[in-house]
Amino acid sequence: MTRDEHLLSCLAEECAEVAQRISKQLRFGSFEQQAGQALNNIERTTEELFDLTAVATICERAGLVLGVMPNEAAIQRKMAKIEKYFAISREQGTLQEPTP
User: Fold this and answer.
1) CA–CA separation, 18 vs 28, rounded Å?
2) Domain spans of the chain?
3) Which residues of the chain have pLDDT under 50?
4) CA distance 26 to 17
5) pTM for the full model?
6) Are 59 and 65 in contact (CB under 8 A)?
């Protein structure tokens, strides 16, 4: 395995760890704190996102990915897509609206 392959493997692992932590947060709640753990699920998800961002930045510096940190235009484009799919979910009755 080359250094580049190793770095990309680390990036894939971090993506999987973020997905796992989000799954735990959804299943057990944001503020649940697993026995023996110092952090709750929000904090653990955040830590995994930090790890992912760090590895993605390392990969960017190695020339393996481009533009890891999104600019405001990229964030707005993504938010527009999310809002589009929120609307479809509302129409299908699968999005639960917050109660006032």
Assistant:
1) 15
2) 3-69, 71-100
3) none
4) 14
5) 0.87
6) yes
